Amino acid sequence: MQGVKRKVVYVSLYELIAVILTSVALAMLGHAPGHAGVAAVAASLIAVVWNLVWNALFEHWESRQTIKGRSVKRRVAHAIGFEGGLIVAFVPFFAWWLNVSWWEAFVLDLGFIVFFLVYTFVFSLIFDKVFGLPASAMQPAPSMKAGPPTSEARQAA
User: Which of 49, 73, 86, 119 is deepest in the core (most CB within 10 A)?
Assistant: First the structure.
């Protein structure tokens, strides 16, 4: 599966699971279930927009790399970049919607960040195993003329 269809399936599955987990976590922290659910859906909408933007930027960068494939290092960079972008949006949103201080919203978001860093990594790994890698990460066909990658090319991965 490639292109827009891949992105829509990825984002839909990712966010459906995220809304459920976020709603449950906020309710367990003492927020009214309805209020927690609205916060989770709003956070999901913010995350969907960021997810589309981040993945487009990442795949554009990835397609220009000499070394193809998705190493652990590349997957970790993807997850950190995604979650880092959400901090900027979620802290003010949670402070406002949940009527908590910016510090409390930041601490809450830190908990979500730790969880979602792992969730993003695992979800992407499983998604790629089930649906295959996107074209941007496909290995090029081996060439008889090409030698082993240089140390500089290996370090870029």
Answer: 86
